């Protein structure tokens, strides 16, 4: 299903676009009268419809699969703060046990709304990269073929970006427990299952409990 509000930044840009749209029509009507205002309305509306049609077409583009060796399975793992959790690593290890599996870990660069709107993402991307590097090092020590990338702040957009080049057979989304997970509050798992054709699995990682067990 096409959704123009794929992220809060998209919604903000749409709001600005609406202000510009109605402002341009109003200005044309003031300067040139009713008929110029009507002409501006028709032209701008046609432009908006054309943009919507192109965006909808782009949304429906199939993913571009990467080359799969015979019997090979590709899994896209999406996690940020929970990327180093033992529960997630155990799930990845289980998935990699019976067949040749290639793992791509995507860590969306979590950021505040204000910093996203002002395109100030350096700190968020650096923090995500640090967590990602530590997780990949652990996966490699287990003999798991894994690579990783820092993705878009919007996890759904990050998944879409990766699917266009990685060609995953499955997506694993890792979140904090319910009540502490912004992704669960936003329905990221459900939206991913509606939006993408590949199977989507969900794993809950309770970092607080893992720390308590580690020190007990």
Tell me what the structure shows.
The protein has helices spanning 8-59, 86-95, 113-117, 122-141, 155-166, 182-185, 188-195, 207-215, and strands at 72-78, 100-108, 146-151, 170-175, 200-204. The radius of gyration is 22 Å and the shape is elongated. The protein has a 5-stranded parallel β-sheet, sandwiched between helices. It is 56% helix and 15% strand. By secondary structure, the protein is of the alpha/beta class. The chain has 2 domains: 1-61; 72-215, HUPs (Rossmann fold), CATH 3.40.50.620.
Low-confidence stretches: 1-7, 60-64, 112-120
DSSP helical segment count: 8
Indicate the mean pLDDT.
80
CATH class type of the largest domain: Alpha Beta
Strand composition percent: 15-25%
Question: Would you give the CATH topology of the largest domain?
Answer: Rossmann fold
Q: What does the largest sheet look like?
A: 5 strands, parallel
Shape: elongated
Coarse structural class: alpha/beta
Radius of gyration: 22 Å
Spatial ordering of strands, largest sheet: 3-2-1-4-5
Task: Name the helix and strand elements from N-terminus to C-terminus, one letter apiece.
Answer: HEHEHHEHEHHEH
Q: What share of the residues lie within helices? A: 55-70%
Amino- and carboxy-terminal Cα gap: 47 Å
* Overall tally of domains: 2
Q: Give me the CATH architecture of the largest domain, please.
A: 3-Layer(aba) Sandwich
Number of strands: 5
